[in-house]
Amino acid sequence: MTVSRVFLLLGTDEKEPEARRIEAGRLSADFAGGNLRTIRLAGKEVLRAISFLVRDRDWGTCEAEIGDLTVEEGQTGTVVRYSARFRSPDGALLDCSATINLNPDRLVFDARFTPDRDFETARAGFAVLHPIVGVAGRPVEVEHGDGTVERSVFPDLIEPWQPFKDIAAITHEVSPGIEAECRFAGDVLEMEDQRNWTDGSYKTYVRPLELPWPYLLQARETVHQSVMLSIRTSGEALAFEERGQENIRLSLRHNAGRLPQMGIGLRPDAAAEELRNAGLLKQVGARHLVCHFDPDAGHGLADLRHFRGVADASGCAVTLECFVPCKRPLDEELGEIAQLVRQSGIELASLAVSPSVDRQSTPPGSVWPECPPLEDIYAAARKAFPGVPLGGGMFSYFTELNRKRVPAEGLSYVTHCTNPIVHAADDTSVMQTFEALRDVTRSVRAIYGAKPYRIGPSTIAMRQNPYGSATKDNPFGKRIAMAARDPRHNALFGAAWTLAYAATVADAEPELLTLSTLAGPSGLIAGAGEPVEAGRARPLFHVLNWLAQLSDGLRIAVETSAPECVAGLGATLNRTTTLLLANLTPDLQRVMLPEAGARRLTLLDETWLRDGAGEPEAIAHQSDSLDLPAYAAARIDIL
Fold this sequence. Notes:
The chain is an alpha+beta fold. The chain is 18% helix and 37% strand. The protein has eleven helices and 35 strands. The strands form four sheets. The chain has a 16-stranded antiparallel sheet that branches. The chain has a nine-stranded mixed sheet with strand order 33-32-35-30-29-28-19-31-34. Keywords: Plasmid. Residues 563-636 form the D-apionate lactonase C-terminal domain. Residues 9-232 form the D-apionate lactonase N-terminal domain.
């Protein structure tokens, strides 16, 4: 069967909403799905997005059905009008009428929305995203509801709580002499540092988190909200224009430290498939198994014996990622878990523990759930598992670790995961998370210094939902925020994302990095209806194999002139310099190679995938440049 090019790239034939550029003078924006992205002034990003969003009670996104769309382009500006219908999981409807007025120095986004019956939501209304690059650590003015003005800076390190509350307007410098003011009406707004979730933005949103949620929008009551962006120019403003595509240059820094060993996650709910494919662990070169164990989910002796079986077949060291129920005396609970471990015969290389209540997030303004002091949990774990290196942190995301910072003095390492589809699941947003991921690892190092550091399992799909009752189902392979299954993991996009993730965190020198499970929707093995034949390795398997091979080398830091387009890392091992590069875009990118010598190129691209995705072959590469096709991953060995 012939499959489409987009399916090879993304693992799905679902089309993203088509973006339409709207313009007025030097001010422009991309309109898609009822919202605005990448608001630019002469090509310079001013705001990342202005969106009207509706979340269900579990923070899942209610998709908009757009109708009655009109776009009027005139000499002085552009006016967009449309209607949108949002449907909650219980079938309630929210109808919205929206207007966007774009002029050369002003943009107004206005929305009026009415539910047909009581509508339960965690949030309904506007969200405005300020970019991170060029904005983090820079001055900002915040006007509050009483008219007072707060002069501050956007957070540099990631702020765990809201940096600004009670916001009527935000003003920041786009470039010298050019200011952008964003003014809000219709609700109380506050800002959160979305880098906590690896979103590449600061988000200003309606309805403070300290208010109860979910809440009800009353039947047939209309709510009115608006956002107004104004551009102000003073003095001699610097001119800037949108640049065309240029060749990407690489800058290498040798002897940049060490690379992490690679881990693979195991989960009891995929035991049968994991046992069938345990041999892949040796092939991929994984050193560690990160085994998820949760007594509250019914995990017990049989699951520990399964972990032992996979460990014996692979030779991998075992880390047990263990939730502690904290419902009985800690010595009793952890002693029972230790007894099960002894009965299973599994030998632990390390143990990470977390109280069960910390599987759910505690948002700002909420009451923290009852929980024994972490110091007591760690002491009980050390008593039950003497001599086993003990880790602590969060099995969810950096957000939770940033808000509940663990006492690390007695720990052998700290750990957390990340997830790129907590708030948005479009292709651009997922790849933009690397802008924030750099700051996540930088913030961890600022908090915990040189403490050994482990990351993962981190995958595109969401392993658990700390913000609601469950992850979202995705039976049709779409791009869905908070989904437990994401089709891009199966395709070239997933391989490029995995390589870029490793490149982005490399400066923090984690000792262990886990970016896949063995089996299941976030695993190494393809299922039915994927770009790779069922039962064979997915494209990211080969990226993980490359990373594992380089883990014993001396790291080479790779900086690119367009990090939003191409990411890379490298290593020197056995007198060979190896560079790994990933194209983060759907467009071909030309990369200039910086080092001379005999080069061999191994390429994971759509041609390789269409030809059957066998073991990729290295070929001689004479050119000083490399054309990276859409979402391709490349290995360049310089002999």
